[in-house]
Each structure stands twice: as C-alpha cells, then as structure tokens.
Amino acid sequence: MSKRSQITRSRRLTVVVWLIISAISAVCYLRTTGITPGQFTWLALFMGFGAGYWPIFVTIPAEQFGTNIRATVTTTVPNFIRASLIPINAAFAALSAGHGMITAGYILMAVLTAIALFSVSQLKETFHTDLNYVEEL
Q1: Cβ pair 26, 47 in contact under 8 A
Q2: What is the pLDDT along the chain (137 residues), one digit of tens a residue?
C-alpha cells in the first residue's frame, strides 16, 4: 500500500484535519470586527465546515468496541459531548469575568482543541480492521 493510500485511509487524520479547520475558523471569528452581513454568512459557512467531522467522530467510538456494546457506545458518546457543554459554559463564564469574552474564547478554544487532539492521538486506527468481535467485560 502506498504512503498516500495509508494517509487517505485514516479516520484519525480526518478528525485532526477538521479539528484544525475548526480552530482556524474560531480564530477568524474571534478576530473579526465590523463585517457586513454577507461576510458574516461566509464566515459562518467556514465555521460550519469545522463541524463537518461529526459523522466521522460518531463513527469512531462505534468502531472501538465490540458488537455487544457498540450500540450503547454509539448513542452514549454524543450525549457525553452534549453534556460537556455545561462545564464548558461554566468555564467560559468564569474566564469572561476576569479576561473578557474574546480572551476567554481564545483560551477555551486552545484548551479544548488540545484535549481533542490528544484524545484522537490515543485512539487506535480502525480502517480495514475486522469489527465483528464481542467485548469481554
């Protein structure tokens, strides 16, 4: 298998690319002032691309577990992500009080992107692996 084929067949690499796009779009959003509604629409479109990794992101947890608990994991992981908004909002409120909203946005974006990149680095690559197994609990 060629080096190019190995790179393009990586779910982890896909998530890393989309995380980087998301971080770049967040920086663009936080730096923007005085734009027109049309420019804001294009910025929102670019930011929307950052959320484009969600289908892959939901697929990865399903591939990390055996068939006996795969459905549970697939439905639970997105709920953990949704629930993480509570401490993220609390952290944003706390940081905003002392540093301002823009700086708080930068801090949270950097911390959360670092956590996400570290998490992706710890996952095993599942492209072209046999996923038909039972998880031993």
Answers
A1: yes
A2: 555 555 567 778 888 888 999 999 999 999 999 999 999 999 999 998 887 777 777 888 888 888 888 888 888 988 998 999 999 999 999 999 999 999 999 999 999 999 999 988 888 777 777 777 777 76
- How many H helices and E strands in the chain? 7, 0
Identify the residue whose tokens are 């393009």.
Answer: 8
Residue where the block lists tokens 């038909």: 132
Angle between the N-to-C axes of helices 54-63 and 70-83, in degrees from 0 to 180, rounded to the nearest 10: 130
Angstrom distance (rounded) from CA 24 to CA 50: 9
Q: How far apart are CA 60 and CA 80, in angstroms?
A: 15
Q: Which two tokens stand for residue 52?
A: 């484009």
| Token pair recorded at residue 54 | 């969600």
CA Rg, the chain, in Å?
18
Q: What is the pTM of this model?
A: 0.80
Cα separation of 62 and 97, whole Å? Answer: 39
Label residue 106 exposed, middle or buried (CB < 10 Å: 0-12, 13-18, 19+): middle
